[in-house]
Design brief:
Number of strands: 0
Number of domains: 1
Strand content: under 5%
């Protein structure tokens, strides 16, 4: 699928999958059951800076396959027009690609 899908769509799907994984982790592993607490805690994992830090750590630990790194590199070259008020551009590029 990754070779046929536009980079922007890959980033969109990746963010959705990451958000779901974080939410499952918070509910199942950390046993958080209040919506306000879930939202607050999820920001520690879903925010641009958090995603960037986590990605860099996983990359350094050789977590990704060579195919996954190629998908990342494709996405890194994608020119996004979406901007958030609470980010620095470099962290945004790392976390969304």
């Amino acid at each position: 699928m990754s070779n046929r899908v536009d980079e922007g769509v890959l980033a969109y799907l990746g963010k959705a999958i990451w958000t779901l994984l974080v939410r499952e982790y918070l509910v199942e592993e950390k046993s958080i059951d209040k919506l306000e607490d879930l939202q607050k805690e999820s920001l520690k994992y879903i925010g641009v800076k958090a995603q960037s830090s986590i990605f860099i750590e996983l990359l350094g630990n050789r977590f990704f396959t060579s195919e996954e790194i190629e998908v990342y590199k494709r996405g890194r070259n994608f020119q996004s027009v979406v901007q958030s008020k609470n980010f620095d551009f470099q962290s945004y590029r790392v976390s969304t690609r």
